[in-house]
């Protein structure tokens, strides 16, 4: 992605033709592979047609407008209004449900390139409660969670940074508030889940450094968690939230009772 000197993503309309062309060609090259790096996601013929289309000024203009639209924070609000309207009209697809997580706390992390990553730890009743089993090796926690797609939110300096929402059952956050080891554990579960999902979206391996801390006076980066559209039943447990819509992939993560705590829980 083309960026300014400040690190802020550059709008397509602000790019020179040369920068836009290089950005497009890089995206086109990545599009030739699937998410696992195997079979092509689009055929050579489709890629050639797309390349030809970009030679037409009117198509480039339409594409630039589209990129700028989905990069606009107002797009999220419009999308959530659309989901709410579907729900009110009882037109949510069969087998799907909308979740409205509530804010818990926010952690600030860094990727391997030292870029900021924000993870909003949220809670919603439809995700199953945590459970623990005792084995010969000790206690093993199963902590269901569901995650929304990545989005860009501005930090306190106004710089857009990639942000994820990871939602647990309210009981999970209650336990976290009472136990620092448990809180550290669910943070590590969320960090692992974000790295895996981000790797899929970025079509490359993404890792988060051990450096992280919980933000003070910020319950949720972006104001509030985004609405999540998930399949009923599935991996997040019997409470309801689960499945894989392609954008939201709930998971049932297991971790020892004492997980690594990163850089600490204080900002």
From TrEMBL:
Signal peptide feature range: none
Region of interest (Disordered), residue spans: 233-267
Biased composition (Gly residues): 234-244
Segments forming domain PIH1 N-terminal: 70-230
Record-linked InterPro entries: PIH1/Kintoun_subfamily, PIH1_N
Coiled coil: none
GO cellular component: cytoplasm
Family: Belongs to the PIH1 family.
Protein name: PIH1 N-terminal domain-containing protein
């Amino acid at each position: 992605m083309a960026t300014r000197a400040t690190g802020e993503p550059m709008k397509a309309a602000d790019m020179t033709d040369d920068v836009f062309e290089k950005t497009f060609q890089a995206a086109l090259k990545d599009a030739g592979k699937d998410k696992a790096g195997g079979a092509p996601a689009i055929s050579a013929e489709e890629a050639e047609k797309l390349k030809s289309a970009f030679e037409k000024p009117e198509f480039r203009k339409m594409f630039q407008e589209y990129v700028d639209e989905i990069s606009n924070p107002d797009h999220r609000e419009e999308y959530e209004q659309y989901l709410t309207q579907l729900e009110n009209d009882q037109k949510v697809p069969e087998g799907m449900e909308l979740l409205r997580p509530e804010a818990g706390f926010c952690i600030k992390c860094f990727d391997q390139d030292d870029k900021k990553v924000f993870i909003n730890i949220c809670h919603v009743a439809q995700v199953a409660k945590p459970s623990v089993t005792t084995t010969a090796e000790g206690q093993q926690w199963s902590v269901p969670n569901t995650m929304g797609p990545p989005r860009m939110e501005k930090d306190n300096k106004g710089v857009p940074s990639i942000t994820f929402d990871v939602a647990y059952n309210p009981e999970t956050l209650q336990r976290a508030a009472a136990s620092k080891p448990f809180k550290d554990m669910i943070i590590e579960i969320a960090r692992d889940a974000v790295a895996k999902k981000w790797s899929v979206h970025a079509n490359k391996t993404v890792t988060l450094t051990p450096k992280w801390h919980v933000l003070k006076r910020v319950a949720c980066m972006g104001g509030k968690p985004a609405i999540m559209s998930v399949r009923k039943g599935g991996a997040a447990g019997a409470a309801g939230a689960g499945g894989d819509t392609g954008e939201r992939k709930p998971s049932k993560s297991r971790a020892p009772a004492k997980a690594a705590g990163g850089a600490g829980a204080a900002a």
